[in-house]
Amino acid sequence: MADDEEPAPTPVWDGKFSEEGLPHGKGNMAYPPPPLGEGETEELPGDAFEGEMVQGSREGQGSYTWGASGARYTGSYRNNRKHGAGSMKMPDTGLYTGGFVEDVMEGDGLYQYGNGDMYEGGFKAGKRSGRGTYHYKAPGCQLMGEWREGSIVSGTWVYRDGSMFVGNFTTPDTPPPPPPPPKAVVKKPADDDDPPRKPRPPKPAAAPLTVPVSGSYFISTTKLQQPGNFVRGVWFPTSDPVVGKATIPFQSAPRPIQTPVADPRVQEPDAAAAAAPHVPEPSAAPATVQA
Asked: Concatenated DSSP letters for the chain?
């Protein structure tokens, strides 16, 4: 090291030390601020840890705050990594509460997104996986069912008005055009002057990235149910609509999630949007910030 070079700043531990001179037990660790980037003049705050350490490694319960982003983790640590039950406030104001395995979200959890959306269910390798329910705040609809690699693969899409689509979903490489409402051929009963109304499921407002493939629509206003398939974004019914009732083929569906607290940054949809919700792409769960 040259004589004029300053030594690199080191973390400052306020607590007890082991015989080896390493942080050990409960205490507070203050980490130096990140170096200034090109053109930067204002120094960002450094990270901070408060909790238990074993031989210089975070172990047990603790709380870590990222000074630059404002992210914060509070929960269990093992071998210096987030492991077990904990909560993570994300830089985008999202909040995850649930299980962690080796610094990654895994197990059952509740993710409240910064835009007001909410997901409750299983996670695997940081992605939505297994049984879960996703609530979209803006259109007021829900997806509940089985998830894989962050996307729903089978389950129920529930609209604001109680109508629903039950079936299979896919995430195509290229999103197809938005499917129009099913055009079912409805036969007029011989003893009735007024034929039953055609089923009119809500028309998607835009091409969703997660799209229904095959299943059945139930329209709450008409109480009609019709099975069919989507082929390149177009609905092909497999039979005439019949009077039915809403059924969700998941006996162990997740418990209902609470209504998210209103976010003043998210505007409520107008009447047209509320009557015609689409299947939006769930917000991506960002990777947890590494300490």
From this structure: --TTPPPPP--EEEEEE-TTSSEEEEEEEEPPPPPP-TT--SPPPPPEEEEEEETTEEEEEEEEE-TTT--EEEEEEETTEEEEEEEEE-TTS-EEEEEEETTEEEEEEEEE-TTS-EEEEEEETTEEEEEEEEEETTTTEEEEEEEETTEEEEEEEE-TTS-EEEEEEE--SSPPPPPPPP----PPPTT-SSPPPPP-PPPPSS--SSEEEEEEEEETTTTEEEEEEEETTEEEESS--EE-----S-TTPPPPPPPPPPPTTSPPP-HHHHHS---PPPPP-PPPPP-
